[in-house]
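Lesson 9: reading folded outputs for more than one chain in a single document. The general rule is that every protein is listed as its sequence immediately followed by its structure tokens, and records are never interleaved. Here is the first one.
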Amino acid sequence: MPHVLRVDGMLQLDPALTAVIEAEQLLEHGSPKEVELRACAVHAIELLSDATGRLLSPAEIDSALWNRGRERHYKALPRPRSRNTAY
């Protein structure tokens, strides 16, 4: 989700983190940058749900963003990478 939210302009990242992502470098799993990126995406999805008056649940928004991220436009751009078994 962080990738789709960033590409769509809904998450603005620290320039240093953006540089790491665009260089396709791995983010260490559990590192402050990786955890904060995931947490901000979760928070953004909650805010989007609130903006719909909870007509769309966070799970529904998450699913829609996940499917959106499968589009060619998103796949063509570097996205955050982290080796882990969490997702």
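And here is the second record, again sequence then tokens.
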Amino acid sequence: MAGNIDYTDINRIGPQVLSYLLISLSYLGIFHKCGVNKLFAFIPAVREYNIALCADKEKEGRTYTVLTCLYYVDVIAGFIFQGDIRVTMFLAIPLLGLYVALFIYGIKIYQGLIQIFERKRKWIWAFIFFKTLTLFIWGLSRKFQPSKKVVSLKGVSGAKELGEDIKASDNALTVNISKRTAIDFFKKKVLLKDIHMSIPKGHLVLLLGGSGAGKTTYLNAVTGYEKADARIMLGQQDVYEDYEKMKYDIGFVPQADLMRGTDTVEMTLLDAALMRLPVEMSVMERENRMAYVLDLFGLTAVKNSLVDKLSGGQRKRLSIALEFITDPELFILDEPDSGLDGVVARKLFEKLREIADEGKIVIVITHTPDRVIDLFDDVIVLAKDARRTGRLAYYGPVDKAYEFFGKESMEDILLSINQKDEGGEGRADEFVEKYADLMKEKVG
């Protein structure tokens, strides 16, 4: 009945509904121009994430979306408990903080929009004081057009696959990765797909790939640190099934070390030996192993020196020695030459060459491969295909890689597979398919 209608609530809610519809229509126009699903303009929180995509601010958009969700929760809670003064006051504190945080991240996103739409920076004041009206004008006026659209993978098919596992060998690391997926901000992403190779023992291997090609994901899958839908065999041992036993046969040296600067070199190596060598190993055997490793990496003369007093090259050799103490069959290093000059880096890679020659498999990531490429046997080239999935573009001898890609340096190979928006030639799918065809001939 009309007499029971609370017009006070209608008058209060009415402007909010009108504002919501107006902003939705504004987002609708901007989403249409930027190539985003227009329906997202009417979904709270989802539209905040997508307006950030339009602004090329995906990272900020994630935070902006989470803050928006928390803001809505706080507002709804305040509406439910509006009769309780204590609860209302309690909710007002985080609400204020969320409002300020949303304002700051909103500024970042609007600055991104201004840049994408190639407008003057002073437009930010229009967004600050007249956000709804400004978004409405930008969304509906044909004068405002983005310089680029949001990349959509809908309907895009990736490069064709090999789809066949390689048979495990007694003297090799056999990698058969069907796929590696992850949930990334409510979306399932395929990080790696269809990677098959067999790396013989005694080989020093370069892992090459542009940003986002999946190099770290590949290494984590191979070592079992982050398991994929895969079968990884070191000889005839399954890394995933026998992980507790196999993890000591795998050494991984990260780019940054975590050594205590106040310990001596010998103390640092002893700590690693006590943690990683078998408990049944005698004191004499452990000391002999430590002496061998110190000598191998040229650290015997500085074994009583503090870690903080070591040169960059010595410190890097010590971080490698810590992982080599277990005498691993598979040795992986992430940018071991980072921060080292050419001469020191060269000596370090020569040492890795010696380790490989002992029958170990050594896989290395480096951003300056051409200065030491003569020391490597093989190269693994990972590339992002059209669906932005890490794929295998090549694995094999270094000399044949130049012929395969038609290039004369590793840097040129990298440029050929990088996306065009990254300054590359955008030929990743071409080489992924070319390599898959080559492998099918060998497997067949």
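What the second record shows: The chain has a mean pLDDT of 87.
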